[in-house]
């Protein structure tokens, strides 16, 4: 059985499910429960998974109202998404403030470099979308200057830099609130021929 696009009330219910699932994921990462308790919880989760998996919603199309709900960075319906809330800056560019969690760990106590790349990739793409230059990442170059901490706010920003035909570039970075730069990214995005004109 397949659902139509979720209604507003289903969407609200999904948000609650996702928030609870994020809490579950954090608990799984940190749990010190004994073997028996872990096995019992796993059995309950297996049953819950089967119930949710019994009905699937259709995949989203680019540009439809809820097309980013499953997105791994900003998706309201995706428990894996931190999620990042992106602010569009008046002078152009985008900004997101984020507190990463132990779920995003790479080296002990620090955020995984791939998570930083994922977040900055999305932010660069959003900065390009904001100026009508939406596209897919063709290359992404990361420079890691200092470890990204979790449990404390980190500020990510990005902006469009230039275009040549279907190719566009954007720069971005993650910094501590005092401006100390931790990670820098530059990306080339290409607008495929099938992309909608305005994103
Ligand atoms: C508002 C909401 C915003 C949401 C933001 C979302 C951000 C998330 C971004 C992503 O994560 S996207 C997912 C990861 N990326 C991909 O899956 C892309 C996979 N690759 C492709 O689909 C195609 O390779 C691509 C669309 C990027 C390019 O295919 P095309 O067939 O359009 O390229 P084509 O071969 O015609 O080349 C066009 C130009 O780009 C150049 N080019 C292509 N791929 C390149 C590459 N990888 N690196 C450098 N240059 C490249 C190519 O040389 C050429 O240059 P010139 O015009 O100067 O001759």
UniProtKB/TrEMBL annotation:
InterPro entries: HotDog_dom_sf, THEM4/THEM5_acyl-CoA_thioest, Thioestr_dom. Its EC number is 3.1.2.2. It holds the Pfam family 4HBT. It is an enzyme of class 3 (hydrolase). The keyword Ribonucleoprotein does not apply. Belongs to the THEM4/THEM5 thioesterase family. This is Acyl-coenzyme A thioesterase THEM4.
């Amino acid at each position: 059985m397949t659902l139509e696009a979720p209604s507003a009330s289903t969407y609200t219910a999904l948000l609650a499910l996702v928030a609870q699932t994020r809490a579950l994921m954090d608990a799984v990462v940190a749990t010190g429960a004994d073997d028996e308790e872990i096995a019992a919880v796993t059995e309950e989760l297996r049953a819950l998974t089967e119930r949710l998996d019994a009905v699937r919603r259709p995949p989203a199309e680019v540009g439809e109202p809820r097309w980013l709900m499953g997105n791994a960075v900003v998706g309201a319906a995706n428990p894996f998404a931190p999620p990042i809330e992106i602010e569009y800056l008046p002078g152009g560019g985008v900004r997101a403030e984020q507190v990463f969690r132990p779920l995003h760990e790479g080296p002990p106590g620090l955020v995984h470099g791939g998570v930083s790349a994922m977040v900055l990739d999305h932010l660069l793409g959003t900065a390009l979308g904001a100026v009508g230059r939406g596209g897919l990442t063709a290359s992404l170059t990361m420079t890691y200057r200092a470890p990204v901490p979790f449990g404390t706010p980190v500020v990510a920003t990005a902006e469009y830099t230039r275009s040549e035909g279907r190719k566009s570039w954007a720069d971005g970075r993650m910094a501590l609130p005092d401006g100390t730069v931790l990670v820098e990214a530059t990306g080339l995005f290409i607008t495929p021929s099938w992309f909608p004109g305005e994103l």
